[in-house]
Write a structure and sequence with these properties.
278 residues, alpha/beta, 9 strands
Length: 278
């Protein structure tokens, strides 16, 4: 196996999330891939944030895996589109542990995918089912053609992963993007997280939210988008989708661990997860 001879330097916000999630990638291909990333800027940023932020990110990523396990079926392989894929090696996890249930994987992001593809080529066989589409997700005029050119079929069922992205999009941008993945019989399913408004959080979570919000907004240069459950349900309704499930951090922790040790009430943990058919 030929590895890249230089680490891939990761931007601060992406490096922050990956540094928090490091414990999830301690074996197999993902471990080898992680060793090729320079997460120094993320670790420096993490030192400025409340420690609770790290637990939140890990729980979110573990829950995405949990959702995938619930929906993937070896007898009926699906496409997986990872929007805002960044440098996260979720596709490596899918190929190692759910290969028979995955027809093909399409990673979409505006940055880093060229370098990521080079690193993947050192880890995977030449005929691997991951396709990298470096594109602006908000360019919904050209994105469908880019997906088709990469092999994506709008007539084949797909799982759409939309993790850590909705926080940085307007309602209009979100709706325009999701419209691309609507199907006549709602055969696609979307997994996504969203940030709660401060009033919907538990009092104990609000100081953490304010600290994280201030730091992230200073880096991305725009306010975070926040949604209550009624807000997010309304967006799904506007897409003519059907909600499959919605989970608070309390729900997620219980489903993952069979008990609640960190999150004990609704509104703790800043975010929620929703899955919906489209």
């Amino acid at each position: 196996m030929e590895l890249q001879d230089h680490p891939l330097k990761v931007a601060p916000t992406a490096a922050l999330v990956l540094s928090y999630a490091h414990s999830l990638y301690t074996r197999g291909l993902a471990k080898t891939y992680f060793e090729q990333l320079d997460l120094a800027e993320g670790k420096a940023l993490a030192a400025k944030l409340p420690t609770e932020a790290g637990g939140l990110v890990c729980c979110r990523k573990r829950f995405i895996r949990h959702q995938l396990e619930q929906f993937l079926d070896n007898e009926d392989p699906v496409q997986v589109a990872i929007l805002g894929a960044g440098l996260d090696p979720l596709s490596l996890h899918l190929l190692e542990f759910h290969r028979e249930a995955v027809h093909s994987i399409y990673e979409v992001d505006a940055d880093h995918l060229r370098q990521k593809e080079q690193h993947y080529h050192t880890l995977l066989p030449a005929r691997q089912p991951v396709r990298f589409i470096q594109a602006d997700m908000n360019d919904t005029l050209h994105l469908p053609d880019l997906l088709r050119d990469a092999g994506y079929s709008f007539g084949r069922p797909a799982i759409i992963i939309f993790e850590g992205v909705a926080h940085y999009m307007s309602d209009e941008q979100f709706l325009n993007l999701m419209q691309l993945f609507r199907t006549p019989n709602k055969t696609n399913v979307v997994f996504m997280d969203y940030t709660l408004p401060e009033y919907a959080m538990s009092p104990a979570s609000r100081p953490v939210f304010k600290a994280v919000k201030k730091q992230i907004e200073s880096l991305v240069g725009r306010p975070l988008s926040v949604y209550s459950r009624p807000d997010i349900f309304q967006l799904v309704e506007m897409l003519q989708g059907d909600v499959a499930g919605v989970d608070s951090m309390k729900d997620m922790e219980f489903k993952l661990n069979g008990r609640n040790e960190r999150y004990h009430e609704e509104g703790e943990g800043l975010i929620e997860m929703i899955s919906f058919y489209l």
